[in-house]
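Input chain follows. Return structure tokens only.
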Amino acid sequence: MVNIEFARGDSYERGVVLKDRKTKQPILTAWDEVYFTVKKYHTDREYKFQKRLSNGGIVYDGDGHYTLFILPEDTNGLAFGEYDIDFEFVKGDFKRTFPGVMKLTKEVTHQYNEVMSNG
């Protein structure tokens, strides 16, 4: 299970390495696509936001290591609290999915407090 926790509206990076269940060695498969999907509830049809390998939201770093990049604008408009998430790795017809929970914690300096003033 994947658990992520950070303040709403912050930047967040998370490294992920898939390992073989028996050997515990990194899986070096070149995946066709990797998804990271966020929904309030897993039963919702529409996602709150999604990151993909194909659009740069997830980057392959080599040796089976991937990095997820969440930007402030991805969570600025979301409510505090928990969201259902998963990573899904796809190669042809083969898929591996790893579910989890993302918790957005309180922030005091909101997006609108970050505007520079000339005073």
